[in-house]
Each structure stands twice: as C-alpha cells, then as structure tokens.
C-alpha cells in the first residue's frame, strides 16, 4: 500500500502552495478515495451511505469511523493525500490578531477552527473538519470572505483556540 502520510505546512507560503496544488487535483469523493486505497469495501461504503441518508446531518467520514471501518488518523491522511486538503502544523505559525478577532469565539469553539490569514477576499482557516459545509457557510456569511479550509489536528486547534480566546486580548498578544 502506498504511503499516505501527510506533509504538514508550517508557513503561510507553504499553505498557499498547498492550496494552489489542491485546485489542480481531480475531484474525488471521500468514499471513492477510501476504496481506492483498499481501506473500505464497496459494501461498507454502501452501509455508511445508507446510514448517512437516514441521518441527514451526519458526515460520511464520521459514520465510517463510528462503524469501525476506518479510524480517525487514517481518515485525516486520506483527506490530506487524496482530496488534497492541506494539513498544517499550528505550532510556530504566525497568527494575525486582527484576523483572529474576525471570527467570534463561539464559532471557533463550535467548529474547532482558527483563522490563519487573509488574502484579498478570502480567509484561510485551519479546521478539525474541513468538509463541514455548515462551518464553511457560517464563517463565509459572518466574515464576508470566501473561506479556504486547511486541516489541523484537533489537539493543536483546541490549544490555539484557548490561547487566543481563553482569556481575551492579553492571551492573544502572547501568541503573536
């Protein structure tokens, strides 16, 4: 089986290059990507899709993990390697306090997201679940920017969210 280990972007330039690379990849659905890597069988995908059809609010990746067909770490690697969603290491990333303030704490915590930077009319955000349409739509509406999602680990996101929003501006200034 080919290696599907993610390469972590750590700078704004690396994130931008990864986002540009993502735009050149062919459209591939999550289930197809998992089957392509022989991580699930067609009947497992069918069962998960049936469950998703019954519960309209659930996401396929979560269902596959809940059913025990795929674990979370493999799911992240597939999202990064096959779907081209950049994975970023937040440790050492230079956060812009102005951009952070554009996303209210309630959204950051609810969707486990942190805004990274602005480029013209788009905002790049690190997310636990970069396929969450609800989060992407709410962030786009609230910020009035197009949202480009990248993926980060939930643990790193939660730590940065706590640093940024946990105790207000005094905490925010310590990470810049």
Automatic annotation (TrEMBL):
Domain Type II secretion system protein GspE N-terminal, first and last residues per copy: 83-170
Pfam family, one: MshEN
Origin: domain of life: Bacteria
Cross-referenced InterPro entries: T2SS_E_N_sf (IPR037257), T2SS_GspE_N (IPR007831)
TM spans (from-to): none
Gene3D superfamilies xref list: Type II secretion system, protein E, N-terminal domain
Protein name: Type II secretion system protein GspE N-terminal domain-containing protein
Species this chain originates from: Glaciimonas immobilis
């Amino acid at each position: 089986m080919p290696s599907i280990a993610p390469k972590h972007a750590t700078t704004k330039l690396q994130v931008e290059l990864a986002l540009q690379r993502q735009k050149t990849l062919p459209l591939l659905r999550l289930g197809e990507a998992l089957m392509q890597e022989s991580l699930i069988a067609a009947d497992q995908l069918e069962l998960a899709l049936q469950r998703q059809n019954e519960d309209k609010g659930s996401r396929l990746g979560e269902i596959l993990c809940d059913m025990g067909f795929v674990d979370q770490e493999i799911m992240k690697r597939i999202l990064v390697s096959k779907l081209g969603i950049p994975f970023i290491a937040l440790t050492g990333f230079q956060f812009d306090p102005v951009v952070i303030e554009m996303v209210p704490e309630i959204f950051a915590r609810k969707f486990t997201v942190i805004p990274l930077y602005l480029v013209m009319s788009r905002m790049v955000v690190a997310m636990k679940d970069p396929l969450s349409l609800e989060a992407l739509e709410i962030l786009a509406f609230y910020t009035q920017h197009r949202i480009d999602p990248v993926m980060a680990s939930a643990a790193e996101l939660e730590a940065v969210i706590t640093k940024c929003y946990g105790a207000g501006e005094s905490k925010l200034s310590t990470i810049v």
